[in-house]
């Protein structure tokens, strides 16, 4: 049995961290669903930048958009929604079969809005309405400005993928924003079953401290942080306050492990997959990592609900003068800036392709 199936049987969802029109039209995504237990999909500006830049598959749609006077951001969201609604339809049987627990796809609001609460909320509502698919999550970063937008979006019934989370404290803040939105829906007499995941980025921790800590600590920080967050998640989900919203019909907000492709060429290509196996969580994997996992026939032990030895490991990093809280804040800030850079590159690619195609027509 493939390790992908073993992971699925364990209760962890495998989502693909990629989307291209070629994946859809070639039948590759359907094959991943049928053969590699893929039950969802995530996207971001970098993924779309690469997809559009490296393929002619979008040329016809770009021409059609140009003919309607579309350009820039408006043209991009037309392209993205076309891809993601097709993907959502592929995953819809899984969404229906699992009663909305699984089978999701994700689309990010413009990263230029990361520090603009009102505009983020407005964009989230608009994109979800335009998609017209119940299994589309809108990605909002868990920044200080993003948290109020997350609460308001959940209250408005918009399913949210909270992205760019790095630390336990950032995760808890995002989880509480979700909770407040659900509690307000219950108080207002609205159905509380709004989907959400909280996306925690893993490999960037290890990349940030590479060469700055003793060799014995290499590639252990991300996993220790994940274990700390997993314990916090289990504690939250079992608390009386959260149990009350489940009793009222709410869904649980699932943890999603993101940035799980191994950055260190000397490390196992499935390092973060085997270490982060846990029921009722999601692991969103780059295509290369997904294929590597399919080639492995076994998994390690599942994550411990009490966090295992994470605090002891993190203490070793403290002794190596790594300030976890400061690094978490820096990683979130750098992540937001990285998405802005990718967004600007994406807009440049669309402008360049638009100009080339306009000349050729």
Question: Which secondary structure elements does this structure contain, and how are they paired or packed?
Answer:
Layout: H1 3-10, E1 13-16, H2 21-25, H3 28-35, E2 38-41, H4 45-53, H5 59-67, H6 72-97, E3 105-108, H7 117-131, E4 136-141, H8 146-155, E5 160-165, H9 168-187, E6 196-201, H10 203-209, H11 221-237, H12 240-247, E7 254-258, H13 271-275, E8 281-285, H14 287-295, H15 310-319, H16 324-360
Parallel strand pairs: 1-2, 1-8, 3-4, 4-5, 5-6, 6-7, 7-8
Helix pairs in contact: 4-16, 5-16, 6-16, 7-8, 8-9, 9-11, 10-11, 11-15
Largest sheet: 8 strands, parallel
Tally of helical runs: 16
Got a strand count?
Answer: 8
Q: Overall pLDDT, averaged?
A: 95
Can you tell me the residue ranges where pLDDT is under 50 for at least 5 consecutive residues?
none
- Estimate what percentage of residues fall within beta strands: 5-15%
Distance between the termini: 51 Å
In short:
This protein has 16 helices and 8 strands. It is an alpha/beta fold and 361 residues long.
Describe the model.
- The chain has an eight-stranded parallel beta sheet.
- The chain is globular and about 65 Å long.
- The chain is α/β, with parallel strands linked by helices.
- Helix 11 (221-237) packs across helix 15 (310-319).
- 56% of the residues lie in helices and 11% in strands.
- The protein starts with a helix and ends with a helix.
